[in-house]
Amino acid sequence: MSRTLSFKLAINEALDLEMRRDPSVILLGEDIVGGSGSPGEMDAWGGVLGVTKGLYGKHGNRLMDTPLSESAYIGAAIGAAACGMRPVAELMFLDFMGVCFDQILNQAAKFRYMFGGKAKTPVVIRAMVGAGFRAAAQHSQMLTPMFTHVPGLKVVCPSNAYDAKGLLIQSIRDDDPVIFCEHKNLYASEADVPAEPYAIPFGEANVVRDGRDVTIVSYGLTVHRALEAAQTLSKRSGIEAEVIDLRTLSPIDWDTVIESVENTGRLVVVDEANPRCSIATDVAAYVAQQAFGALKAAPQMVTAPHTPVPFSPALEDLYIPSADAIAAAVLKTHPQALAA
Amino acid sequence: MSITSPMQTADGALSNNPIPLEKDALLAAYRTMRTIRDFEERLHVEFAKGDIPGFVHLYAGEEACATGIMMHLTDSDRIASTHRGHGHCIAKGVDVEEMMAEIYGKSSGSCRGKGGSMHIADLSKGMMGANGILGAGAPLICGAALAAKCRGDGGVGITFFGDGAANQGTVLESMNLAAVWNLPVIFVLENNGYAEATSVTYATGVDNFLDRAHGFGLPGVSVDGTDFFAVHKAAGELIAKARAGGGPALLECKMVRFYGHFEGDSQTYKAKGENDFNRLNRDCLKIFADRVTAAGIVSDAEIALMDREVANLIDDAVSSAKSAPQPTPQELTSDVYVSY
Ligand SMILES: Cc1ncc(C[n+]2csc(CCOP(=O)(O)OP(=O)(O)O)c2C)c(N)n1
Ligand SMILES: [Mg+2]
């Protein structure tokens, strides 16, 4: 059975289903129940934006509110994972990773390799990413490249409710540490989501639009901007863009990207992260190396500027790559269309 | 603001005087508290209209703490604030119109609209920023105190943090650092009983925060944070001691938060009638006004006059913030050392 479900509820459902399936799945985070020890309603919040709301009623003490101590509870989730549990820890905003980075960078990410393959660390760290929420410089960053850079971590960033559910289920079942990035401006977006559990394998990109003239590669919120740009280009310039949603950044599906560029001969990478050492530079470099012969134009990158996220809506609206900027980048790969 | 108070000397000479402050100082204290209250009450109203972007955490109910402490400081003393920072800013002398404009994301704001409510700063006033990262101010203020100590200028640093943020490693590490370096730092724990929706009793292992201070070798004082005079006296003694080289201390202010964690919080974790009870019985402004008028030092008419003046100030701040220009697009990429 499939029905329309929001991104937020799809995540809630994935957590619920996996908790039912596997008693080793536990949830920890700040106010994921919300109301612990307080005189009023328990489960008052269900997470800062209500993503885990209702799960306390179903699973009780398998959800644990934590003190405001990210190093301690993220580290505890990692330690418990190394001892056979499957914790899903919520970090609220990925920006807070700064507080507990050692536990991720030097502990979780390295156990398997450093201990000669003897350890596994099936922890999931869920966190909100991205700008557009007026949440300012310390609650809005797209830090996906930082985690993608680290060997031993898997990095997931879904663009829609269907993928969010399937990828979160896969993340929980996966035996490695997963950084699960939820774009806060996608929570309300809806898609058809089957009620049953299903897992979407890592490293399988999704071709969300077919096209012969240019390949646009993106992930997360900007997939929708890329689709918008593709529609405009089709109408206005007759350019048919193929749009690829990477879905997982580590592992990454190079085959789908290369195959597409070999057909189109042109590449635009759209990344909400800052431009240097980003997913955009990573994909552009790989394509330049592996498919140089197929390229008919220089690869283009559309990213956030090299700045922190500004607060003022007037500035923040200019920060996230827009459909217009993506369309302009596509036209740069088509000099003849620009001239026309 | 810098007001000399007889209580700055720790001799306790005036401690038997029911109103141990000159009239001018009392009026100044009332004005500061009233300004904070009106600023916050007005934000509550404007936020509900949908005019104010982002996360807004109100300090209403907690005014006596910021005011009682800041009256002992000069512009060259430094404070590090929190996400709930408006009260600290106002009491430290940050311009109210600029603050309001910042919260509206306008170019005339304290940070030219780039920071927002959670990042208001004015270094010229010794205000090192509100902060979106819990516990982040504590190490920074150790640095400010270290700088003061190196220069031998008698400056002190005050870091504010909530009962929730008290559990951040950065705060605990900083207490130890301040102790071993004998830094002129006052750690001000603003205990309003809640961290978001979670109760302080749930999240804290000790019954008494002073035990933590003692554990780090710091003296600690706990006061009723709704009693301006209690805060003012305790802070005055601790600050005078720190200035004189007597080292760091913890000051716990027990207080109440009149509104939700942030604007839009339904507050169902609170007890029924809790906010009404607090407004009736634990309103630091009312307690202060009753005390100074009952003692016959300040008249009702003087209070009423100041109320009108402050109301006008806030009106002006809101209307000038609303009509102020948006930041220009160039602001997006200014203030970084390089643009790519
Ligand atoms: C490192 C970090 N973790 C979590 C948060 C989210 N957060 C913001 S305020 C808050 C509660 C703070 O409670 P407390 O310290 O008691 O201050 P209060 O809000 O009561 O003034 C939380 C969890 C954050 N901003 N930074
Ligand atoms: Mg609190």
TrEMBL record, chain A:
Q: Which UniProt keywords apply?
A: Oxidoreductase
Q: What is its EC number?
A: 1.2.4.-
Q: Provide the Transketolase-like pyrimidine-binding domain boundaries.
A: 5-189
Q: Does the keyword Kinase apply?
A: no
**Which molecular function GO terms apply here?**
oxidoreductase activity
A Pfam entry, by short name: Transket_pyr
* Coiled-coil boundaries: none
Q: Which SUPFAM superfamilies match?
A: Thiamin diphosphate-binding fold (THDP-binding), TK C-terminal domain-like
Q: Which InterPro entries match?
A: THDP-binding, Transketo_C/PFOR_II, Transketolase-like_Pyr-bd, Transketolase_C
Gene3D superfamilies in the record: 3.40.50.920, 3.40.50.970
Q: Which domain of life is it from?
A: Bacteria
Q: Which PANTHER family match?
A: ACETOIN:2,6-DICHLOROPHENOLINDOPHENOL OXIDOREDUCTASE SUBUNIT BETA (PTHR43257:SF3), PYRUVATE DEHYDROGENASE E1 COMPONENT BETA SUBUNIT (PTHR43257)
Task: Check the record and name the NCBIfam families matching this protein.
Answer: PRK09212.1 (NF006667)
This protein is called Alpha-ketoacid dehydrogenase subunit beta
Organism of derivation: Xanthobacter aminoxidans
Automatic annotation (TrEMBL), chain B:
* Entry keyword Oxidoreductase: yes
In terms of superkingdom, the source organism counts as Bacteria
Asked if the Swiss-Prot or TrEMBL record annotates the protein with the keyword Oxidoreductase, the reply is yes
Tell me the keywords, alphabetical order: Oxidoreductase, Thiamine pyrophosphate
Report the leader peptide range.
none
What Gene3D superfamilies does this protein map onto?
3.40.50.970
Which SUPFAM superfamilies does the annotation name?
Thiamin diphosphate-binding fold (THDP-binding)
Locate the Dehydrogenase E1 component domain: which residues? 32-329
Q: Please name the InterPro entries in this protein's record.
A: DH_E1, PDH_E1_Alpha_Subunit, THDP-binding
In terms of PANTHER family, this protein maps to: PYRUVATE DEHYDROGENASE E1 COMPONENT SUBUNIT ALPHA, PYRUVATE DEHYDROGENASE E1 COMPONENT, ALPHA SUBUNIT BACTERIAL AND ORGANELLAR
This protein's name: Thiamine pyrophosphate-dependent dehydrogenase E1 component subunit alpha
